[in-house]
Amino acid sequence: MTPPSRRERLRTATVSEIKDGARRLLVTGGLDAVSLRAIARDMGMTAPAIYRYFPSLEALIAGLAADFYDELRQTVEAARDTAGDDPLDQLLAMSRAFRRWGVGNRAEFTLIFGNPVPGLEEFTDACGDEDHPGARLGTVFVRPLATLAAHAGLRTPPREFLEEHLGDRLAPLRRSHGDLSLEVAYAFLSGWTRIYGLIAMEVFDHLRWAVTEPEALFETELAAFVAQLSPAPEQQLGAGGGQQLGAAPERSGAAGATVRVTPPRAGSH
Amino acid sequence: MTPPSRRERLRTATVSEIKDGARRLLVTGGLDAVSLRAIARDMGMTAPAIYRYFPSLEALIAGLAADFYDELRQTVEAARDTAGDDPLDQLLAMSRAFRRWGVGNRAEFTLIFGNPVPGLEEFTDACGDEDHPGARLGTVFVRPLATLAAHAGLRTPPREFLEEHLGDRLAPLRRSHGDLSLEVAYAFLSGWTRIYGLIAMEVFDHLRWAVTEPEALFETELAAFVAQLSPAPEQQLGAGGGQQLGAAPERSGAAGATVRVTPPRAGSH
DNA sequence: TCATTCGAGTGAACGGCGTTAACTTACGCA
DNA sequence: TGCGTAAGTTAACGCCGTTCACTCGAATGA
Question: What is this structure's pTM?
């Protein structure tokens, strides 16, 4: 409504400056280097002044974490929007964008996807809310996958297998995204944990003893996972396919409805 | 040779007491709670005394990390040794032991498999050495996998695909374990990153928003990965198999030499 | 216009931290 | 028995988060 007052403008500017300083310290020196005194020093202030803007250092860091989730989500959405209409292409582009962001923003990735940080449990625990920054990131990945399942089909373990092994234990995920089918929920989690494992190991430097270029391994796994997901058996790894997945030219032609797991249906969204 | 002198005995006892106290603090309060002053307080000492035993707090924590690697490796080896001779059974038992250890020792898992810790880079970087605690843990997993590939066969993407995607980028891993074949190296890394992703997400509490019982998801993924690895096509998920993978009774009967990736060969170890 | 309110920022202080330096104590060995 | 030295102490330095009492200046209302 009313334009922000002068006070409010100054205030938001100061908040940004504090966060920028905190992020700079985080990137250059790790989480331990983020101290109120250091931030204030860089701003030409004293540490207690920051308490006018954040109730504690932990709250400031939680604010950073939320920002990073949003930044990552926007990056992923941008990648999706430039990938055309094919949901599989979108998922590939999004996965690559995810990895690129993590590798290019190690400290930020670590903050939101690594160890639980001492004061952030509360933030992490609120992940169930629909509008939690983390949940919104998840949604961005879930949607193309659901579309893929509905249109092109998705090869997953049969429902009886999933029922027996998982039952309703994926309920939190399924309910928070509009009653996902068990197959889609499982496919999402399987893919998510695989991508997470690869990126986290690369970012946390747990891969250097084994791989010289983690990106190549990432691409290989991406291709393998897609081949495993794709319904047509002749599309499996081994038919010479794989290297064309980067460009993905005429794959959609062969993507018939071999094992259409989730029949297309209206509504339920 | 000579029995340890009284001084030496006291010294090692004190070292153990320091490490025990540090671990207790780590478990109860996280890494930030591990402070020389707190350790010394619990021991009825003063903080500078610890410098007679460790050159710095970081060195003490690095020592803890090495201990944890060894403890985990011994746990995994014990699970392998009670799993019989089938290498696939061994791998399953080892994977479950890995997860159990991580879930039961969250702080310890976090220290060695989470964020790079500010003073541990040097320890992590030395992972290339054959006798690094982390490398030795890797070896424990590589060996049954290599055996499995040699005896029962292993379904992996064809060599041309791996060559094109990975080339010699897995050289560090392959060389440090007696010239592993590209297929086995890839299968190991694929499985390792998947298991790591699942366990890390569970331990780091990044799964609670989606799954109520992460163990069920772990078992599902284990079964899926095994089905994907097993050479016989009729063994794939969907043939009603899967739930018997926990006990794995007569699987070895069907494990023919369908796509024997690495022919059995003597030597080369 | 003037008085008042209140947000922003300061300086001092408390207790905690890792680490260093100088010092004392007591054990083990020749 | 004497000596060297390992083990432990106290004091101190400079960090840290946080609290409290305080000042200052800008916005606000009569």
Answer: 0.87
Enter the tokens of residue B172.
Answer: 């560090």
What three-state secondary structure class fits B179? Answer: coil
- In angstroms, rounded to a whole number, what is the distance separating the alpha carbons of residues A61 and A30? 12
Among A residues 171-190, those touching chain B with beta carbons less than 8 Å apart:
171-173, 176, 185-186, 189-190
CB of B15 within 8 A of CB of B25? Answer: no
What's the 3-state SS for A8-42?
A: HHHHHHHHHHHHHHHHHHHHHHCHHHCCHHHHHHH
Q: Residue A236 gets which letter from DSSP?
A: S
Q: What is the pLDDT of residues B36-49, one digit of tens each?
A: 999 999 999 999 99
Q: Are B124 and A205 a contacting pair at CB < 8 A? A: yes
* Nucleic strand C contacts from chain A, 18-47, CB < 7 Å: 40, 44-46
The pLDDT tens digits of the residues spanning B75-107 come to 999 999 999 999 999 999 999 999 999 999 999
CB A115 within 8 A of CB B206: no
Q: What are the tens digits of pLDDT across the range B125-168?
A: 888 788 888 889 999 999 999 999 999 889 999 999 999 999 99
Q: Looking at beta carbons, which pairs linking A129-133 to residues 24 or more positions away fall under 8 Å?
A: A130/A176, A133/A65, A133/A66, A133/A69, A133/A70, A133/A73
Q: How far is CA B204 from CA B3, B107, B113, B237, in A?
A: 45, 10, 10, 29
* Contact (CB<8Å) A114/B114: yes
Mean pLDDT, chain B, whole residue set:
85
Is the pLDDT assigned to residue A67 strictly greater than 50?
Answer: yes
B70 pLDDT above the threshold of 70? yes
A7 in contact with nucleic chain C (CB within 7 A):
yes
CA–CA distance, A37 with A49 (Å, rounded to integer): 10
Disruptive mutation site among B111, B156, B161 for chain A (greatest number of A CBs within 10 Å): B161
Sorted by sequence, the CB contacts under 8 Å of residue A34 that are 6+ apart come out as A22, A25, A26, A57, A60, A61
Interface of B with A in 43-102 (CB under 8 A): none
Higher pLDDT, A123 or A250: A123
A229, A203 contact by CB (below 8 A): no
Count other C-beta atoms under 10 Å from residue B178's C-beta.
12
Nearest to B157 among A166, A173, A238 (CB): A238
How far: B10 CA to D4 C1' (Å)? 19
From the centroid of its chain, how far is CA A165? 26
More confident site: B119 or B58: B58
Q: Torsion angle of alpha carbons B226, B231, B233, B235, nearest 10°?
A: -40
Q: Please identify among residues 5-34 of chain A the ones whose CB lies closer than 8 Å to any CB of chain B.
A: 30, 32
